[in-house]
Design brief:
With 715 residues, the chain is mostly beta strands. The chain folds into two domains: 73-93 and 111-152 and 174-433, Neuraminidase (6 Propeller); 438-699, 3-Layer(aba) Sandwich (Rossmann fold), CATH 3.40.50. The chain contains nine helices and 42 strands. The strands form ten sheets. An eight-stranded mixed sheet has the order 35-36-38-37-39-40-41-42, sandwiched between helices. Strands 1, 2, 3, 4 and 5 form a five-stranded antiparallel sheet that branches. The protein is globular and about 70 Å long. The two termini are 28 Å apart. The model is unreliable at 103-107 and 710-715 (pLDDT under 50).
Length: 715
């Protein structure tokens, strides 16, 4: 820890170690993970690669170097890593997990050994053994239109900043589109000696698997290793349909490239996997251990990013025409009303382990690996508190799994899960970020209340660590984004409920209509209802707290939201519920639905607004917060970022201008260098101090050290 504190504060949250998932080796004895920390004293970040002894739960630091990333097992003791180099280059290195780089042999340290330098930035490392001394390797890398590695430092100097476009997707997330796109590159590494590996291909390096095609993989803006997989027989990956514009359509397909040696200088053409009526997003293709079968997931609609994932199977990659759907029904809806996320094969390939969201938690499910045998809906496997993230097989001699999870009071837990015993044993917990500062599971509970219709709505509740049921606490009413998303029992460094609770609030995070994890019909019901059912659900939540939860002081309530939650704050501001709050916070919220075509992923707007702006103008006008600005009266803080291309900064400026012109107490915080999320530590600390200072001022809580304090230097 880099700060001294006696309670859980924003500084504690942001400076606490952040751990990646733990990835075990083939024998299930060791697991690699990374840890990063930030110091507000030195204003610098540190990064380390560590190894976990799965038997004892003890961990050892292998390397402390910010240039090192992506540790990936090569054998039971050796692993690959990527080192960022000068002028846009990157280096592929091999290291030994049993010989920490911090140890010394005589007067010399034990550095990783370099295999090759690439004139470009490689990432998303994946390997699989081909023989005792050879492994297949696949990475992704920015690639030029001619199919070569792209290195921006090699481009000729430009004397202009102008950008001209003739197609959609001018910009995406936080970057402007360029002609250079990500591609997948393969190769084979052959063991040359005990400590060294070399590329086995004739060209001594990597081959672009997608050269000469129009395919792009991983799929932006968040695509990674989950978009592809490799086996002894080839490469399977996800790519957008090149015949459809990705700004309008969500359709992505699974492709298969057969490879015999991973040294082929000219890869075979990718073969598309067709899935009939399912025409939406594809994701998470995973080979069975035999390499014969592939499990993946697919959505039905091709203009809906939050459709239900269907679990799919290719029984034999030699016959891509045979694709089977798990829990298929005649009406096309599917019998399992869950949204599978991570997919893992058991060691014997007879079962699948799948994570899926359920009522504010992400659970782990177990089912047969063929749809014909999956006749009963899967039951969850015990994994402990919170939500499961990544899951990996342990030793082939057991059916155990290594799971990484988190909760509202613990940022990271590594557990050994035994599906046969339906139990989990914690190996390691990053409790410094939460439990060390007094956070406990006793602070977390939930409520159910009557929604706007004939249904119940769920909300998470987090109380202060020193909670006294005889007292009344001000309410922090959190509204999630998405809108097809949910507040969950998991850790976050953005919008962490514990930060608000430790200021002295009872935090209520409702999951109204549109939320995920409560059945697909509940998620779908928000379409064309943005200010309708969700708003009414939130009104019912507030009324339930007022009448049935005595320790919540609804006369001292504040509401906060980001993205769709920011839209809802703007909507609330113009309606009756807005007058029930002392203050509001709108982060990257939509000011006017009439301007929503300034976004980048237009398929989202088309789906949720019920059509195009010219085809359904009334639908856009119906839920426009700007139409009700004549009612805006509650003090409000606006936060917006200039690199947010999903919701341009003018949305925040427009809301602030209205508030100022109406004489409503208001403040705007703008980050020129952040996107839809504020993630840089120093900026995030300013965000927390501004937000907490704003709401604390209006409910009478302490503002010492926060925005509004006389010592606070932020203007």
């Amino acid at each position: 820890m880099t700060v001294m504190a006696t309670k859980f504060t924003p500084e504690v949250l942001l400076s606490a170690p952040r751990r990646s998932a733990a990835v075990p080796n083939g024998s299930g004895t060791l697991a690699l993970f990374t840890v990063s920390t930030y110091s507000f004293e030195s204003h610098s970040r540190t990064a380390a690669i560590k190894v976990l002894d799965i038997k004892t739960g003890n961990s050892t630091t292998l390397y402390e170097d910010q240039a090192y990333s992506e540790p990936t097992w090569l054998s039971d003791s050796q692993f690959l890593l990527v080192k960022s180099g000068d002028k846009g280059s990157s280096h592929l290195l091999v290291a030994d997990a049993t010989q920490p780089g911090s140890e010394y042999v005589g007067s010399q340290s034990i550095p990783p050994r370099q295999i090759k330098t690439f004139d470009g930035s490689i990432s998303n490392l994946k390997v699989t053994p081909l023989s005792d001394d050879t492994v297949a390797l696949v990475v992704s890398a920015p690639t030029t239109p001619s199919g070569e590695l792209h290195n921006p430092s090699r481009e000729p100097k430009s004397y202009t900043t102008g950008k001209a476009y003739s197609d959609l997707f001018v910009r995406h997330w936080d970057t402007y589109s360029t002609k250079n796109k990500p591609s997948l590159w393969y190769g084979a590494l052959k063991k040359a000696s005990r400590d060294m590996w070399n590329f086995a291909s004739p060209n001594g390096g990597l081959v672009n698997a997608l050269k000469g095609t129009k395919l792009v993989s991983p799929v932006g803006p968040f695509g990674g290793t989950g978009d592809f997989d490799i086996s002894k027989g080839g490469l399977v990956f996800v790519a957008s349909d090149p015949e459809l514009n990705p700004a309008i359509y969500t359709k992505t397909d699974v492709y298969y490239v057969p490879l015999k040696t991973f040294t082929e200088e000219k890869p075979p053409a990718p073969q598309q996997v067709k899935t009939g009526h399912l025409q939406g997003y594809s994701g998470s293709p995973v080979f069975s251990h035999s390499g014969q079968s592939v499990a993946f997931k697919r959505m039905r609609h091709r203009q809906y990013e939050s459709d239900k994932w269907r679990l799919m199977l290719i029984p034999d990659v030699a016959d891509l025409a045979n694709v089977q759907e798990f829990y298929k029904t005649d009406d096309g809806e599917g019998a399992w009303d869950q949204r599978p996320e991570t997919v893992v094969w058991s060691h014997d390939d007879k079962e699948l382990f799948v994570t899926a969201e359920d009522k504010a938690r992400t659970l782990l499910y177990r089912l047969p690996s063929t749809p014909l045998e999956a006749t009963k809906l899967p039951e969850p496997v015990a994994t402990g508190h919170g939500s499961v993230g990544d899951v990996f097989n342990l030793s082939p001699r057991s059916n155990q799994l290594l799971a990484t999870s988190s909760s509202l009071v613990d940022s990271s837990t590594y557990s050994v899960v035994d599906p046969d015993a339906n139990s989990a044993v914690t190996l390691s917990s990053a409790s410094k970020a939460g439990k060390t500062f007094g956070l406990s599971e006793s602070q977390v509970s939930s409520i159910w209340f009557q929604g706007a219709g004939d249904y119940q709505v769920h909300a998470l509740v987090m109380k202060p660590s020193g909670f006294d049921p005889a007292k009344k606490y001000p309410l922090a009413f959190l509204i999630h984004g998405g809108p097809q998303g949910a507040w969950g029992e998991s850790w976050s460094t953005r919008w962490n409920p514990a930060v608000f609770a430790e200021q002295g609030y009872v935090v209520v995070a409702a999951n109204p209509t549109g939320s995920t994890g409560y059945g697909q019909a509940f998620t779908d019901a928000i379409a064309t209802q943005w200010g309708g059912r969700p708003y009414e659900d939130l009104v019912r939540c507030f009324e339930h707290l007022e009448s049935s939860v005595p320790y919540v002081d609804t006369d001292r309530a504040v509401a906060l939201g980001a993205s769709y939650g920011g839209y809802m704050v703007n909507w609330i501001q113009g309606h009756a519920l807005g007058r029930r709050f002392k203050a509001l916070v709108c982060h990257d919220g939509l000011f006017s639905t009439m301007g929503s075509w300034s976004t980048e992923e237009l398929f989202f707007t088309i789906h949720d607004m019920g059509g195009t702006l010219w085809g359904n103008r009334a639908g856009y006008e119906r839920w426009d917060p700007a139409a009700f600005t004549g009612e805006w009266a509650t003090p409000m803080l606006i936060v917006h970022s200039e690199l947010d291309y999903r919701l341009p900064v003018t949305e925040g400026l427009a809301a602030f201008n209205v508030l100022q012109a109406r004489g409503v107490d208001s403040r705007i915080l703008i980050f020129p260098d952040e996107n839809h999320w504020v993630i840089k530590p120093e900026n995030s600390l300013v965000w927390h101090k501004e937000v907490l200072g704003w709401i604390n001022k209006y409910v009478g809580l302490d503002t010492t050290g926060l925005a509004g304090d006389t010592e606070q230097l932020v203007v």
